[in-house]
Amino acid sequence: MEMKRKVMARGDRDWLSDLPDPILLHILSMLSNSKAVVRTSVLSRKWRFLWMSVPISLDFHFPIGGSENDNLFYLASTHRELIIGGIARKSRNSGSGALVANVESFALGIINTNHQRYEFPQFAYKNNSLRDLALRYCQLNPTGSVNWSSLVSLSLVSLPLTDGVMEKVLSGCPNLECLELDSVSGIHRLEISSVKLRELSIQDYINENPDLWLEILAPFIQNLQLLG
């Protein structure tokens, strides 16, 4: 009876998880579907964050021709998958969160048929690894400080902004080199004091108050583009 128990216990063992991490990472890197790599995070505690060390690119697109309910379902499932995988996880202690440390490039654009903008989550304003960030049709409203210390390139397209929000964003990007503002509104003073930010592109600026002009103070800018 004791021998039978040992055999059963040996048969229940997860031999795959017992492999060294380098071998597991090599196996994950062989998967052609990057989303399948992320889904391995639900297998066990060991696998939860293992996929983060695999260089992958996640790309989600709404189904073409789908109804609003289809789009909402797809958005919810995508959000759930990212939460499970750890792209956006919240700290149990503080209630705040952060994007996964290994994410260096992130692009987000959501168009709502009800003309309601997706509000960029508060936990996402804290990230030390992002280098390229592109946001479209979102709402930026950081309640605290912004910390994108590694960000090099920032693109904001079709966003309503305020001078205060823009000031917070720029103060939280000490290494920013390139800033693109396309079809943005609400800002009237853009002050850039960083010596590292050398490229500024402003296209199709939306001036909702004809009595106010956009004032730009950027003494260190070397490449300035004003279009539209």
TrEMBL record:
InterPro entries: F-box-like_dom_sf, F-box_AtFBL13-like, F-box_dom, LRR_At1g61320_AtMIF1, LRR_dom_sf. Coiled coil: none annotated. Residues 16-55 form the F-box domain. Transmembrane segments: none annotated. Residues 101-225 form the At1g61320/AtMIF1 LRR domain. PANTHER family: CYCLIN-LIKE F-BOX, F-BOX_LRR-REPEAT PROTEIN 13-LIKE. This is F-box/LRR-repeat protein 25-like.
